[in-house]
């Protein structure tokens, strides 16, 4: 932690004063004063072009934000992460997802162990396994090749795999079926398997801890389904593999650890899609394309590690999030991909951003005294425009938005892609510049309707553009947001790598389960609301 608390840092105080001026400025003026702004306030790295000119900032704002990053020791803490120092202080762990995508031959030694060599050992085993599955060499219990992959996991052991599969579906083995089961709601597993034959199905049980109730419940039911269909416990060995850091528990479940792909406690669940947790992704797109994805992650890592702060994409995006959250009081950030394959990207980002930065105390345990992680949310492209964009355009809340577009579609069809892309630019334009009362009047609008049609504008956007969605670009895009989260968390002085807040609910649920399942009326000792709800539930269950 820097010696000075965030609010006392000179740059923070300067930003507070500066905000009072900027708040009154409109993007229309800022663009009018500086005709080259749109070409100037942009940056490019790892195949991603970021236009951040339509933000409520001036050069002075940027200077102050960069000063804030320096005073908050973003560079030092970034270097500590890259050196494997235990920056996840509440769990006493290194934070080394960046090692997952270091190229073969690179080395990073932590506690005397070269973690990059470990990573590549696992990647090689994954590649061998993926080849055997894809080629049909790996046979199920009855001798049939595997054609269906079901990933069973939750949180980071689900959202990354499902997002990456959807994002890279274009590149996937189309003769195979991929399903993802996360919810302990039985419907999830039942629907995911109802049209599959166990003979051709492989379950990948993905759980860092191998102790997550939802995943183990689903995995046990999946095992019953396989054994029920194939008539033998021996089938488990050919139809289940595990991805975990916990060999002991994998063995207890009955999966041969020869069929386990490991990772390490220095990989956070929400930072794990490029570890063995990505096994389903690798089977879907093949090891070579998986390597391309890792190269994209690494390219963005290198940019984050080496580029000056003022040209550093993740730093800029992180600083802008702080600017709106802490100085304008923005509560949320929208992320809208104009690419159907990225439909699960906002859901993926929700865990990455909110489980990381939804914290109320600093790393030294002191209540922060300022807002931390904003709510991230979003939907693909034009669908959102016909639903909630109204609020972003004319509502009373300020919602900064990231719009993600591509030069090429993976499925060319008439002029669909140009129509889609026109919306990226039009939305950013409308949000920034709006429509004045004079303009609305000049269109002959009836006076009583004029106020309803005025578009205030001055609503900030980042526009991210890439040539087309490839494994490499997906890696770069995810790493961009990972490091933006890091930048924000470092400024707020919080531990972005723990998640203690999810524990209490889990413990209470474990206590409540027997009260719901027991035959006899339980003696309830909760608060009166929980007691009444449990009684009512039991009545509903019995009718
Ligand atoms: O409940 C939160 C969490 O611990 C996440 O951080 C994690 O991604 C998820 O549960 C799943 O955990 P595991 O991979 O250990 O099953």
Automatic annotation (TrEMBL):
Its main location: cytoplasm. It comes from Actinoallomurus oryzae. The gene is pgi_1. The lineage of its organism: Bacteria, Bacillati, Actinomycetota, Actinomycetes, Streptosporangiales. This is Glucose-6-phosphate isomerase. Keywords: Cytoplasm, Gluconeogenesis, Glycolysis, Isomerase. Its EC number is 5.3.1.9. Catalyzes the reversible isomerization of glucose-6-phosphate to fructose-6-phosphate. It catalyses: alpha-D-glucose 6-phosphate = beta-D-fructose 6-phosphate. The active site is at residues 355, 386, 506. InterPro entries: G6P_Isomerase, G6P_Isomerase_C, Phosphoglucose_isomerase_CS, SIS_dom_sf, SIS_PGI_1, SIS_PGI_2. It holds the Pfam family PGI. Pathway: Carbohydrate biosynthesis; gluconeogenesis; Carbohydrate degradation; glycolysis; D-glyceraldehyde 3-phosphate and glycerone phosphate from D-glucose: step 2/4. Coiled coil: none annotated.
């Amino acid at each position: 932690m820097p010696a000075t608390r965030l609010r006392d840092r000179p740059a923070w105080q300067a930003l507070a004063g500066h905000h009072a001026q900027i708040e009154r400025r409109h993007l229309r003026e800022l663009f009018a004063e500086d005709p080259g702004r749109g070409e100037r306030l942009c940056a490019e790295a790892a195949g991603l072009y970021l236009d951040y000119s339509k933000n409520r900032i001036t050069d002075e704002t940027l200077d102050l934000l960069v000063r804030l990053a320096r005073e908050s020791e973003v560079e030092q803490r970034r270097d500590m992460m890259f050196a494997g120092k235990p920056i996840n202080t509440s769990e006493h762990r290194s934070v080394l997802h960046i090692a997952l995508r270091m190229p073969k031959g690179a080395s990073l030694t932590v506690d005397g162990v070269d973690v990059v060599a470990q990573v590549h050992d696992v990647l090689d085993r994954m590649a061998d396994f993926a080849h055997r599955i894809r080629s049909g060499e790996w046979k199920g219990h009855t001798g049939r090749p595997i054609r269906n992959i079901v990933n069973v996991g939750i949180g980071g052991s689900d959202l990354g795999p499902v997002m990456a599969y959807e994002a890279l579906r274009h590149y996937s083995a189309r003769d195979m079926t991929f399903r993802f089961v996360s919810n302990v709601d039985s419907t999830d597993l039942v629907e995911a398997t109802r049209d599959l034959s166990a003979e051709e199905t492989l379950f990948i049980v993905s759980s860092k801890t191998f102790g997550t109730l939802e995943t183990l419940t689903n995995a046990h039911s999946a095992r019953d389904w396989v054994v029920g269909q194939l008539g033998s416990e021996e089938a488990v060995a050919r139809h289940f593999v595990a991805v975990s850091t916990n060999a002991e528990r994998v063995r207890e479940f009955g999966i041969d650890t020869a069929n386990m792909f490991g990772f390490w406690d220095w990989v956070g669940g929400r930072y794990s899609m490029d570890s063995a947790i990505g096994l389903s992704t690798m089977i879907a797109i093949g090891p070579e394309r998986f390597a391309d994805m890792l190269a994209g992650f690494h390219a963005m890592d290198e940019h984050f590690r080496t580029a000056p702060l003022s040209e550093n994409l993740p730093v800029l995006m992180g600083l802008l999030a702080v600017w709106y959250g802490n100085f304008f009081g923005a509560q949320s950030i929208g992320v809208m991909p104009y690419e159907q394959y990225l439909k699960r990207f906002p859901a993926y980002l929700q865990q990455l951003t909110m489980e990381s930065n939804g914290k109320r105390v600093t790393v030294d345990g002191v209540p922060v005294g300022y807002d931390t992680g904003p709510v991230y949310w979003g939907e693909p492209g034009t669908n959102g425009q016909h639903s909630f964009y109204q609020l972003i355009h004319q509502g009373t809340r300020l919602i900064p938005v990231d719009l993600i577009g591509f030069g090429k579609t993976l499925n060319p069809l008439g002029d669909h892609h140009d129509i889609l892309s026109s919306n990226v630019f039009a939305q950013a334009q409308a949000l920034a510049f709006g429509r004045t009362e004079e303009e609305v009047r000049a269109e002959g609008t009836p006076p009583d309707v004029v106020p309803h049609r005025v578009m205030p504008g001055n609503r900030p956007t980042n526009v991210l553009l890439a040539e087309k969605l490839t494994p490499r670009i997906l890696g770069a895009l995810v790493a961009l947001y990972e490091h933006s989260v890091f930048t924000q968390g470092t400024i707020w002085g919080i531990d972005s790598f723990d998640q203690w807040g999810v524990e209490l609910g889990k413990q209470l649920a474990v206590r409540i389960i027997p009260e719901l399942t027991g035959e006899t009326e339980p003696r309830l000792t909760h608060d009166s609301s929980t007691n009444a709800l449990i009684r009512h539930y039991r009545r509903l269950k019995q009718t």
